[in-house]
Design goal:
mainly alpha; 164 residues
Length: 164
């Protein structure tokens, strides 16, 4: 089955965001883009753990609530240590030849950041009431093969769905 490639406003927005983030990724480099991408994923993970902690305490399930709080603390410590390593990587990435590759790979990291943002948008639409906004986003997604592939390849959804 071959799906028709309909161009819609969501595809135009996605492509514009990809171009913008690719340009920005080229300018700041992969090391900085990876740091920002990891920060985004960590923030999402902490949000999921926070939701788990709050709902556990509200359901009087203290054990799960405490586990979630401990995981938030561990995540903070690991992220801090990872930040030290990534800051060192950003320093090394400023060396002449490495700087060129850092910029080129920054393009891919910038585009990946857009994919992650769309995955988060799709998670929100699927798990929270978004009304006609969410319906329109899904309509546009289903009309376009690229957007549908992006939707179907949502790796974050599998990680966070158990918490929602």
């Amino acid at each position: 089955m071959h799906m028709q490639m309909n161009i819609n406003i969501l595809l135009i927005i996605a492509l514009a965001l990809c171009l913008w983030r690719a340009y920005r990724g080229f300018r700041v480099g992969m090391a900085e883009e990876i740091y920002r991408l990891i920060s985004l994923v960590v923030a999402l993970f902490v949000l999921a753990l926070s939701i788990m902690a709050i709902s556990s305490f509200m359901d009087h399930n203290t054990k799960n609530g405490i586990v979630a709080v401990i995981l938030i603390i561990i995540t903070g410590i690991v992220f801090h240590l990872l930040s030290i390593v990534l800051n060192s990587l950003k320093t090394v990435a400023k060396l002449p030849i490495i700087s060129f590759f850092n910029s080129i790979l920054g393009i891919a990291a910038g585009v990946l950041e857009v994919a992650v943002a769309f995955w988060i948008l799709y998670i929100i639409i699927q798990n929270f009431p978004t009304g006609s906004f969410g319906e329109q986003i899904m309509k546009w997604t289903n009309e376009n093969e690229w957007l549908l592939r992006l939707y179907n390849s949502n790796y974050i959804s599998g990680w966070i769905s158990p918490f929602l």
